[in-house]
């Protein structure tokens, strides 16, 4: 069989034209585009036949004629040149099937595989963002609950705590519902009723997704900021306690963000690995589907050569040969098309069954995971170490996400295996039909037409089978080369992904360092802020920055995916060119000098197109990176606004503190001037001074007496409540007889009953001890709050008595009160929020609540209990010191 030995695959004129025009198609293809750009008319005379019967067929594994099911789509959707798709606008308008699960990808056309899989990767990133956002909300509620438990409370506060938590949960739920509605509306963008979508619509949807997620992130920030005001307004919590709660909440949310960041990095890499695995599985199924087309081409090529030999020998006329070839083409390609239709139809049934099975598994897993979450939260001790609790809760949620991901991966693998089995089943059925066609041709048709004996026809059939096996061997070798090239391409893609991942990490570090440097420089210029205020601002900025960078990291992954989608078509065409080079290099064994030059030119063409593709890829990456940087700038602007507001509140509190100190100093100066004026005044007499001092002491005495009576009455009331609570809790908790106290029948069980009763008594004693300790703790907290309330009232009344004495003395000495207005203004409207903070003193009581500190950016700090005690001692000392000017006045009246 000399025709097998050396088959020149080059036609010099056509090959030279192809390389010059840079047209991609197999060099040994028989039907090529004409020089005027039109196609060979014979190619479209009968689309059901890949090769006309009046021309000899030479099978080529990568012939662009391919199967007839591929010919039409390649003719309209794929260009023969990389430069024909150089226009970004044209490629962005490219449509592909919009799928929602990987099994649906397996029945798509091969030209849409990469785009469909990358689109699924974008959906995976969006689902990951949703899962992490919901975990953040869950952890936020648990952290807030722990912070509220740290506050001292009364019985009536339990319901208020529940209202606070319920409000936060409802706000988060409404926030998530609003976001999901926006995301759903965006998801419908560009699709409508069609199952196809363009790449431009995908990019637009991703931009809108990013904007909506950033808005949601900012809304969550605002909700956190409003907690402090909500506690002060609704819960009547003091400013210092509300501020301390926010400090603790911020610290723990920073720890939660760290856990979420690490989890996001790991699961984003897992999603990338899953996407690469999907590409591998889809390529495997596509290779199995194309196997029947290679089989058809090889068998038809062998039949064509056998009939050509019979025609040369005069056994068949040219017309008979053409008719037989036409019949065989129609039969073989018709069977190949039935294979394709059968695979699509039965493949859709497999996909539906897979989706139903996955939905059922997901529903069961979701119910089990919700039950697991409730069980964990019910058993967890919120008052234990918060860091350990957060770590344990995060591990539970992460394990649940991994279980969901594993379920999806297993379903993908199972469906792929089922598709492979289906391909093999249809392949065997089609091969049996092909063999019947060959048997009918050589054992029934040819003996009557050629006059050959059955033995000769059997020999011809054996030769056809040998020729077919040889053709299939060439095809198998080429398919192995194709698979190796595919593996190389997959490794290159993985390397590009990891490089983009590294660049994204560097970008995050750069953004983080830049923002932190700016904030430190700004705070460094305000030397008046206390260290506590500065630290609180930095902590708040750190929390927001972590959240923003985590969002930008996922957006960067989406940008990388869109870059690969833009380059998918061009990479596919370059891959075809590499496969053609591998085919020509492997099949061409006897080449002259000119043919070797053409092969070298093809190699140079591959290198040139690869270099050009790399340049275009770099330009596309830069173009899409500009979008990421613009979004990073937008997020940075939001961070700046929040940080500016926090710094402004801290500066305002610092200014209030400075003004308060200044007013207090003015008041002390006024009292000193008033004392000197009273000593010098002729209007001040001994009798007048004695009357003022006596009235002042009487007022102080009544205030102290009332305070002592209220204190004793309160202690008595609290003692009674404590006793009643102890009796009630003891009765509720231990009124029922224990199981071990029941009578035991039979003398043989007496020993067991004794042990049971002892164990029950021990448990009862320990439980009583725990209840007793809890009751004591609640009682002490309640007593502390009540004493704090009485102390605030006493301070207010003492300040009122002092101001009344100073006002009367100023009137007696004819000293104008204009100098005391700063103190009076401080006691005016600005005291209202402070008085609210002071546990609602009686409306008639107005006192100096003390000045705010710069530690509270929202409303200024308020004195703690110890500071109020110092102020009370100061007022009592001042009451005693009042004798000094009065004695001076008396001595002046009695020289």
UniProtKB/TrEMBL annotation:
**Could you confirm whether the keyword Transferase appears in this record?**
no
Membrane topology recorded in Swiss-Prot or TrEMBL: Single-pass membrane protein
Q: Which InterPro entries match?
A: Limbin/EVC
Q: List the coiled-coil residues.
A: 599-630
Subcellular location(s): the record lists: Cell membrane; Cell projection, Cilium membrane; Cytoplasm, Cytoskeleton, Cilium basal body
Q: Note the superkingdom of the native organism.
A: Eukaryota
What are the boundaries of the region Disordered? 818-895
Which keywords accompany this UniProt record?
Cell membrane, Cell projection, Coiled coil, Cytoplasm, Cytoskeleton, Membrane, Transmembrane, Transmembrane helix
Q: What residue spans carry the Basic and acidic residues bias annotation?
A: 883-895
> Quick check: keyword Protein biosynthesis in the entry?
no
Return the protein name. EvC complex member EVC isoform X6
Q: Which organism is it from?
A: Acinonyx jubatus
């Amino acid at each position: 069989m000399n025709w097998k030995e050396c088959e020149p695959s080059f036609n010099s004129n056509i090959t030279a034209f192809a390389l010059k025009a840079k047209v991609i198609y197999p060099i040994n293809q028989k039907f090529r585009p004409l020089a005027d750009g039109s196609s060979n008319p014979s190619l479209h005379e009968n689309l059901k036949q890949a090769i006309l019967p009046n021309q000899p067929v030479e099978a080529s594994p990568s012939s662009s004629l391919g199967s007839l099911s591929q010919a039409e789509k390649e003719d309209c959707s794929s260009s023969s040149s990389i430069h024909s798709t150089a226009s970004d606008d044209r490629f962005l308008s490219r449509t592909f099937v919009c799928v929602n699960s990987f099994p649906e990808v397996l029945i798509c056309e091969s030209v849409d595989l990469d785009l469909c899989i990358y689109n699924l990767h974008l959906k995976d990133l969006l689902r990951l963002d949703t899962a992490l956002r919901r975990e953040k909300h869950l952890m936020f509620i648990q952290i807030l609950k722990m912070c509220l438990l740290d506050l001292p409370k009364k019985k009536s506060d339990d319901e208020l705590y529940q209202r606070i938590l319920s409000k936060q949960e409802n706000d988060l739920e409404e926030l998530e519902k609003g976001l999901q509605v926006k995301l759903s509306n965006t998801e419908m963008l560009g699709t409508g009723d069609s199952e196809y979508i363009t790449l431009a619509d995908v990019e637009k949807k991703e931009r809108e997704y990013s904007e909506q997620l950033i808005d949601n992130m900012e809304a969550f920030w605002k909700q956190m900021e409003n907690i402090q005001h909500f506690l002060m307004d609704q819960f009547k919590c003091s400013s210092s306690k509300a501020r301390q709660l926010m400090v603790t909440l911020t610290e723990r949310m920073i720890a939660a963000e760290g856990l979420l960041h690490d989890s996001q990095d790991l699961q984003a890499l897992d999603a990338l690995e899953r996407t690469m695995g999907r590409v591998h599985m889809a390529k495997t199924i596509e290779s199995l589907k194309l196997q029947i087309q290679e089989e058809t081409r090889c068998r038809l090529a062998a039949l064509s050569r056998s009939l050509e030999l019979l025609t040369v020998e005069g056994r068949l006329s040219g017309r008979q040969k053409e008719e037989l070839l036409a019949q065989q083409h129609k039969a073989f390609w018709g069977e190949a098309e039935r294979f394709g239709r059968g695979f699509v139809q039965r493949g859709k049934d497999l996909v539906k069954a897979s989706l139903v099975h996955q939905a059922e598994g997901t529903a069961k897993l979701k119910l089990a995971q919700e039950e697991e979450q409730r069980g964990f939260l019910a058993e967890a001790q919120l008052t234990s170490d918060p860091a350990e609790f957060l770590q344990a809760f995060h591990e539970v949620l992460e394990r649940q996400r991994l279980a969901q991901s594993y379920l999806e991966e297993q379903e993908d693998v199972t469906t792929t295996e089922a598709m492979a089995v289906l391909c093999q089943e249809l392949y065997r059925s089609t091969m049996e039909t092909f063999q019947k066609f060959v048997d009918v041709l050589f054992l029934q048709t040819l003996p009557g037409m050629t006059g050959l004996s059955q033995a000769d026809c059997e020999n011809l059939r054996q030769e056809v089978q040998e020729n077919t096996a040889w053709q299939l061997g060439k095809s198998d070798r080429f398919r192995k080369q194709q698979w190796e090239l595919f593996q190389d391409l997959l490794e290159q893609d993985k390397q590009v992904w990891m490089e983009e991942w590294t660049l994204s990490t560097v970008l995050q570090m750069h953004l983080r360092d830049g923002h932190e440097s700016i904030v430190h420089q700004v705070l460094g210029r305000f030397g008046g802020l206390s260290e506590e205020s500065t630290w609180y601002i930095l902590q708040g900025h750190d929390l927001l920055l972590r959240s923003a960078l985590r969002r930008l990291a996922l957006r960067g992954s989406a940008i990388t995916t869109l870059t690969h989608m833009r380059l998918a078509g061009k990479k596919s065409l370059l891959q075809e060119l590499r496969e053609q080079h591998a085919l020509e290099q492997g099949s061409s064994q006897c080449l002259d000098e000119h043919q070797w030059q053409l092969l070298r030119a093809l190699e140079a063409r591959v290198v040139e197109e690869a270099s050009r593709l790399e340049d275009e890829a770099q330009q596309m990456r830069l173009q899409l990176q500009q979008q990421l940087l613009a979004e990073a700038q937008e997020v940075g602007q939001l961070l700046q606004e929040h940080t500016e507001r926090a710094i402004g509140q801290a500066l305002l509190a610092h200014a209030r503190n400075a003004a308060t100190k200044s007013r207090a100093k003015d008041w002390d100066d006024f009292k000193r001037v008033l004392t000197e004026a009273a000593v010098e005044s002729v209007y001040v007499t001994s009798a007048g001074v004695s009357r003022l001092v006596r009235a002042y002491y009487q007022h102080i005495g009544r205030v102290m007496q009332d305070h002592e009576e209220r204190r004793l009455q309160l202690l008595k009331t609290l003692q009674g409540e404590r006793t009643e609570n102890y009796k009630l809790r003891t009765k509720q908790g231990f009124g029922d007889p224990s199981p071990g106290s029941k009578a035991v029948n039979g003398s043989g069980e007496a020993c067991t009953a004794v042990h049971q009763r002892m164990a029950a008594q021990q448990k009862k004693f320990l439980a009583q001890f725990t209840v007793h300790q809890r009751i004591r703790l609640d009682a002490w907290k309640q007593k502390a709050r009540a004493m704090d309330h009485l102390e605030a009232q006493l301070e207010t009344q003492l300040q009122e008595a002092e101001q009344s004495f100073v006002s009367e003395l100023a009137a007696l000495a004819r000293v104008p009160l204009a100098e005391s207005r700063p103190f009076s203004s401080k006691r005016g409207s600005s005291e209202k929020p402070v008085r609210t903070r002071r546990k609602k003193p009686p409306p008639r009581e107005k006192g100096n609540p003390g000045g705010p500190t710069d530690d509270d950016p929202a409303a200024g700090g308020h004195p703690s209990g110890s500071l109020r005690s110092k102020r009370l001692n100061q007022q009592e000392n001042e009451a005693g010191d009042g004798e000094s000017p009065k004695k001076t006045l008396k001595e002046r009246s009695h020289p």
